[in-house]
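Box 4.2: Ligand-aware structure prediction
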Amino acid sequence: MKILVTGGAGFIGSNFIHFILEQYPEDSIVNLDNLTYAGNLENLASVEDNTQYRFIKGDIGDVVLIDSLVAQCDVVVHFAAESHVDRSILGPEAFVQTNVFGTFTLLEVARKYSKRFHHVSTDEVFGSLERDAPAFNEATPYDPRSPYSASKAASDHLVRAYFHTYGLPVTLSNCSNNYGPYHFPEKLIPLALTNLLEEKKVPVYGDGRQIRDWLFVEDHCRAIDVILRQGKIGETYCIGGNGERENIWIVEQLLTLLGKDTSSIEYVTDRPGHDRRYAIDFTKIRTELGWEPSVSLAEGLARTVAWFQKNENWWKRVKSGEYQQYYASQYGKS
Ligand code: NAD
Ligand code: TYD
């Protein structure tokens, strides 16, 4: 299978590329990424010389480039996005540009060539759950509340519209919070972890009792792969980790793993419009496609801590912005 991956230099996309090249040596991957602050080719250094892999620097909104790449692939797996809620609050425009217009451009070209399209989305499109409410599933109405989740919701609707209106062979997945290797240290787990490794404090928003449903990134990659190969066209699959925890529990777990105490926690002003709880009911993908999470939260957190301890150079360079300067000199500013 010839796979066009968008956003493959980011956290989940790079894990997905490693996963596919390991599991399916006969598959080939073209990775299209415009290397925003979140894109990092060092995530893919070990596959750079693999003849089944090729990197193209470019924007998903560049219709001429997209046309030439989509024409040559069998399937598009679409990860590229602006992905951080806090950044979307400070500057929503890039989110609308990439997540909505970028997805639209890809869909138009996929329609021209009738190409199979998998859209990677988030559980945040469903809004915020009360503590005792049932978890989100595929029938939950959309209720996005941040510019990030609103832009992802818009893209989900466009993808479904292309299936119903034009018969484009699409699938979608809405996944809960991921964590693991190559996670950009602006999100809770890698930020907390790297701050602790630098002897800094961990900022906890509000009362720290917001709940997320954590999934180890490899399990997400395996779920996308199953949907790509066995998923029913036109269907959406919710992917979750069975890993609902309060943020403060996660932070305390990291403190314990690193031999620190609660004096490293700093409670800070809450995020505006902060969603209280996300949780996913993944019955559909479990019963129809046989997928379920394989890495427990305890194991996943231990593996993540070990990875960040071993890859200090990686996160120190990411945090200092060194990669961005290097890519700007190699490719010009994105
Ligand atoms: P990320 O921010 O780590 O990576 C995004 C990648 O997309 C980067 O490499 C960036 O350079 C690239 N990109 C951004 N704009 C682009 C553009 N206009 N053209 C080409 N490339 C562009 O994000 P991530 O955490 O890996 O998330 C990947 C996808 O998964 C996103 O669509 C996100 O909404 C979704 N998702 C993420 C999570 C999570 O917990 N991180 C959970 C569910 C779904
Ligand atoms: P984040 O990793 O940004 O993911 P998302 O907002 O997409 O769920 O945040 C996860 C949770 O952690 C969320 O409730 C916000 C909270 N948080 C903090 O308390 N402190 C932080 O420094 C960050 C980045 C997040």
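In the box above, the bound molecule is thymidine-5'-diphosphate. Residues 6-7, 9-13, 33-36, 38-39, 59-61, 79-83, 98, 102, 120-122, 152, 175, 177-178, 184 surround nicotinamide-adenine-dinucleotide (ligand 1) (CB under 6 Å).
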